[in-house]
Amino acid sequence: MHIIPCVETRFEDAGTFRQATRYGSILPAAWSLMLSLRSRGLGTAWTTLHLYHERDVAALLGIPDDITQAALLAVAYCTGTNFRPGQRVPALERTYWDTWRLTQ
Description:
By secondary structure, the chain is an alpha+beta fold. The protein has helices at residues 16-39, 54-61; strands spanning 2-3, 6-7, 42-47, 68-69, 72-77.
């Protein structure tokens, strides 16, 4: 299944603050949906590649012109139970205080 979280407005003429605020509204809701699906045995993947063809997708699905598609969530049943945390860079290598530090 595919789920396309949407926002009831367009962002083309919105400044950075408005864009961040609007995406900041839809992203937590989509993330909560993803967690809820996981608790029911469904895995999800957050994608945005379809946005290169946003107008074609809107036409295919009948999404009105004044709606912004924020992402596409691919959803499927999980095929195992051996879930484990992904490899991550230590937080101290990505956390800065009072300045931006480029990593080597």
